[in-house]
UniProtKB/TrEMBL annotation, chain B:
<dbReference type="InterPro" id="IPR006059">
    <property type="entry name" value="SBP"/>
</dbReference>
<keyword id="KW-0732">Signal</keyword>
<dbReference type="Pfam" id="PF01547">
    <property type="entry name" value="SBP_bac_1"/>
</dbReference>
<protein>
    <submittedName>
        <fullName>Extracellular solute-binding protein</fullName>
    </submittedName>
</protein>
<dbReference type="InterPro" id="IPR050490">
    <property type="entry name" value="Bact_solute-bd_prot1"/>
</dbReference>
<feature type="signal peptide">
    <location>
        <begin position="1"/>
        <end position="25"/>
    </location>
</feature>
């Protein structure tokens, strides 16, 4: 009895020792990431936060000016409008991308392996193209004289449209390439989520007589919840941070109708001799993006898929 | 060594290797002594003073000119080496600000005139007067000298000026519709009428800057009507008046009459639509002359250049353009200001023959800021007969005014207001009232009143 207790004690000591050893190894492996994160993320964030409260320029000793930079940014109608434009873009881009990718992922799932592989590669290509190139390509498409879009309209006897100079179309004109560029990525994420759902669930549901719609509502959607959250959050933050496509196609015009916050801040970075406005604006955007993500996570709890 | 110790040591070593590899990968400074990549401002081997000089990429001829004369300077000055670096325009600000933040900013930079005064306020540029012969500044034309001065000091030395807007027009299209190709429009009304006559299927009568370019191209029209949208002391908006009402209405009429495309066919600086015959007239800057001569030589003789039409049709002796261009600036923290200024004096302020070669290379699409250089150029056979140069030199540049140096935000607010008239159908009076309010709000929020560095000189 005593021997057994001693052996048990010894065994748990060994386990504890191994666990501590594993923990040390894990911490050692984390050290490089921690140092890099500190150097390239935490320290710059801390410095930016500090400098946002000063009249920071590269040639004068910064002086503390409290919330002045934040007051200027928040009072700026261009910044406020740019944030509004960004949220409009979220509502234009995310739902369309979401629904289209969900449907297309189902289509790919039903394809043969060979065709499916080809389609997957094809739809992924736009993502590896830089936003600048995507913007340039769509600028050609939207060209007033000789652009593909207007040439198509001319075939049907419709006169040329000012796709990027008319405030009626401008926002849609920058949303379309963003949807196109992200579509492949979202579809592949959806497909990965779909393929992860055990086939048994569907077979069991079929045997119980569940319709395709009920199978989607009661099996697919609940099992895809975490994928949906990820796609939603990354889609929203991506749309709120849209920059290169807008820069290339409209440069924020006409009349600020497509000016996004990031483009607005980059313009300030380029034009201002001091950096206070840009840094404060960037921090406000970080707060908006972070808060939005936090709220989404709070509303839609991510947890393990149902068994 | 026990297995446990071995694992610990291996893990630590692996972590160290990962860290070092990543840090090495992140580092971009691979310079070694003597490999020609010495840090700016430090002394190269043999005690040479190294002066970094940044410039945006130029066309082949101008690039060769900068290389040639920088090399000449380096060869004729034993103790100094100017390191010329071409920095792409779209990466300029990022690279410059990164260099400024770590103290490696170029000692000499190729800088746009309009950005200089407010940067001087921040200490970004040093006055050249302590390092350059004062006589060198006397060679500058009066209105250009004014551009580079704040108070009694000069904070840059001009390389060239480029006036805009000028009216470029196709003489062959004028003849086609029975208009006299030697009598381009002089008033806004004439411009609209002629543009209407020249418009036909597949061709617009006129090209004007599109939404992305309105904010800066209108500096020329603002100069033309006599004042910028903000008062000289930057204390209040000055847009809600008859001259701005007329300018906004003129712009609106161009679109209402459908003589300009609803969406710009190119960037404002591009002469392509005119050269390809997709428009019959177009506003552009003097730089377009170089494009015409280089890229569209076959139709260059069919293109006329005229003073931009004015509201009342009087173009002689009137301001019709803004003067853009570039100058060389000396960094406020330059480690070798004397040597850097010596190079500036040599390249752009010294022997007029050097700058004459520059303008020859640019095919006279850029214009000299110095009288001595123009005197030399005018002696060249054929140059004084150049009709483009003659008009610009005699009728445009002497009366042109500088681009504004207030925050570009003001120009963006202006551009947005004008676009709402064109794109959203906002009535001119409403747009001007909102523009006035927006500028005044900006002045209040930014505490901008009386901050004009040239007013406070």
């Amino acid at each position: 009895m005593n021997d057994a207790t001693a052996r048990k004690g010894l065994s748990s000591q060994k386990l504890l020792s191994r666990s501590r050893q594993d923990a040390k190894t894990a911490y050692a492996m984390l050290v490089p990431t921690f140092i890099l994160l500190t150097l390239f993320a935490l320290l710059p964030l801390g410095m930016s936060l500090f400098k946002s409260f000063t009249d920071f320029s590269f040639y004068k000793t910064p002086e503390f000016i409290g919330f002045h930079n934040y007051r200027i940014v928040l009072a700026d109608p261009f910044f406020r409008k740019a944030v509004l434009v960004a949220f409009k873009l979220v509502f234009l881009i995310v739902p369309v991308q979401f629904v289209a990718a969900f449907l297309f992922a189902h289509l790919i799932k039903e394809m043969s392996t060979r065709i499916g592989a080809f389609v997957k590669t094809t739809i992924y290509i736009p993502l590896v193209i830089s936003g600048i190139v995507v913007g340039a390509v769509f600028s050609f498409i939207y060209n007033y004289q000789g652009g593909i879009l207007n040439s198509l309209l001319n075939v049907f006897g419709i006169e040329n449209q000012a796709w990027i100079a008319d405030s009626t179309y401008a926002l849609y004109s920058v949303a379309a390439p963003a949807i196109w560029q992200g579509f492949g990525y979202v579809t592949l994420m959806m497909l990965a989520g779909l393929l992860d759902i055990p086939k048994d669930y569907y077979e069991a549901a079929k045997m119980d007589g569940a319709s395709a719609f009920r199978r989607m509502v009661y099996i697919t959607i609940p099992n895809m919840k975490n994928v949906f959250i990820f796609i939603f959050i990354s889609g929203v933050t991506g749309a709120l941070s849209l920059y290169e496509i807008v820069l290339m196609i409209t440069n924020g015009g006409p009349g600020g109708e497509t000016l996004t916050p990031v483009l607005h801040l980059v313009n300030h970075f380029n034009n201002d001799p001091t950096m206070g406005y840009t840094v404060a604006g960037a921090i406000i955007m970080a707060i908006i993006l972070g808060s939005f993500s936090a709220v989404i996570f709070r509303i839609v709890q991510s947890d393990k898929a149902i068994d | 060594m026990t297995m446990k110790t071995f694992k610990s040591v291996t893990a630590m070593a692996l972590a160290l290797v990962m860290l070092v590899s990543l840090m090495t990968a992140c580092s971009s400074n691979n310079s070694k002594p003597g490999d020609g990549k010495e840090q700016p401002g430090t002394n190269a081997p043999h005690s040479k003073v190294v002066i970094p000089f940044w410039i945006t990429p130029q066309d082949t001829g101008i690039t060769a000119w900068f290389r040639k004369w920088t090399n000449e300077f380096n060869q004729s000055h034993d103790g100094v080496e100017v390191k010329l670096e071409f920095v792409p325009q779209d990466a300029w600000q990022q690279k410059l600000k990164a260099a400024q933040s770590n103290g490696t900013a170029p000692q000499i930079a190729y800088t746009n005139y309009a950005s200089i005064p407010m940067s001087v306020e921040e200490g970004m540029y040093a006055a050249l007067d302590d390092y350059m012969d004062p006589k060198l500044f006397e060679d500058l034309y009066g209105n250009i000298k004014e551009i580079v001065s704040i108070g009694d000091n000069h904070y840059s030395y001009p390389v060239f000026v480029e006036p805009y807007q000028l009216l470029f027009y196709r003489k062959d299209f004028f003849e086609e519709v029975g208009l006299d190709p030697e009598s381009p429009p002089t008033s806004w009304k004439q411009l609209i009428d002629m543009a209407a006559q020249l418009t036909k299927q597949g061709r617009f009568g006129l090209a004007v800057p599109g939404s992305g370019d309105v904010a800066w191209t209108h500096w020329a029209f603002q100069n033309m009507i006599g004042h910028f949208p903000i008062s000289d002391d930057w204390s209040h908006a000055t847009v809600n008046d008859e001259s701005y009402r007329e300018l906004f209405s003129f712009w609106k009429t161009l679109y209402d009459e459908k003589v300009v495309p609803k969406q710009a066919l190119s960037e404002a600086w591009d002469i392509k639509p005119l050269a390809e015959g997709r428009v019959a007239m177009g506003f552009n800057g003097s730089w377009a002359i170089g494009n015409l001569k280089n890229e569209y030589a076959d139709i260059a003789d069919k293109v006329g250049v005229a003073v931009a039409p004015t509201p009342d049709g009087i173009t002689e002796g009137k301001t019709t353009a803004a003067l853009g261009g570039y100058a060389l600036t000396l960094d406020g923290k330059a480690k070798n200001p004397k040597e850097a200024a010596e190079f500036i004096s040599y390249l752009v302020a010294g022997d007029p023959q050097i700058m004459k070669e520059f303008f020859e290379t640019s095919q006279y699409s850029k214009f000299s800021a110095r009288q001595s250089v123009d005197e030399l150029i005018n002696k060249e056979p054929g140059v004084s007969d150049d009709p483009y140069r003659d008009i610009i030199l005699k009728q445009v540049i002497p009366f042109a005014k500088p681009e504004p140096w207030y925050s570009f935000d003001i120009s963006s607010i202006y551009g947005t207001a004008l676009e709402t008239v064109i794109s959203n159908g906002v009535p001119v009076d409403d747009a001007l009232a909102k523009l006035e309010k927006d500028i005044n709000d900006y002045i209040k929020v930014h505490n901008y009143a009386n901050k004009n560095p040239k007013q406070n000189q």
